[in-house]
Structure prediction request, 212 residues.
Amino acid sequence: MPFTLPALPYALSALEPSIDATTMEIHSQKHHGAYVTNANKALEGSKWAELSPEAVIKQLAEVPEDKRGPVRNNAGGHVNHSMFWLTMATPGHGGGGEPTGALADAIKDSFSTFAHFKDAFGAAALSRFGSGWAWLIWHGGEKKLVVASTPNQDNPLMGKAIAGCEGTPILGLDVWEHGYYLKYQNRRSDYVSAWWNVVSWGAVAANFDKAR
Prediction:
């Protein structure tokens, strides 16, 4: 089945003032929409066109070389953004605060404190040169959470040989300039700081439970 652009679970203005409505509209409809269109075009007529986007990027190394670049960029972008929208919520109504329960315990086990985790994640986001993502990943083999960063639209599901890291992402932050430049210009650090106010820890906890 062709990939489809998911509907946002909230209004375009729901994440203000952390993320403005105009950026949300352009980012979710134009940029994400282009990834969906281009991924479908790259996969059309192939056996991968019948798979889920997550399954496609897990098998990226098997995709024919002439299609691999477009699939990596566009199917990767589709998977990344589909998670991104769902792990944010209106500040004070599911967005912001701190995690609880098993996720909070896992963060403490892996990073000692929530503050240390935020520092590590923020460093990954700010040190990514150019465009890319910062991730919180469940590493099943080691039974722990890790922080990593990938370039462009790479995703840890693509595996270490391709993305430079591996595991199941449960939280991702888009640090492409199109995700923040209208409001924050070159102040990526301000964007990262504001983004914590809209993180939906309930959604991240659900991702964590599924990953385990």
Observations:
- The domain at 21-86 is CATH 1.10.287.990 (Helix Hairpins).
- The CA atoms of residues 123 and 134 lie 9 Å apart.
- The chain has nine helices and three strands.
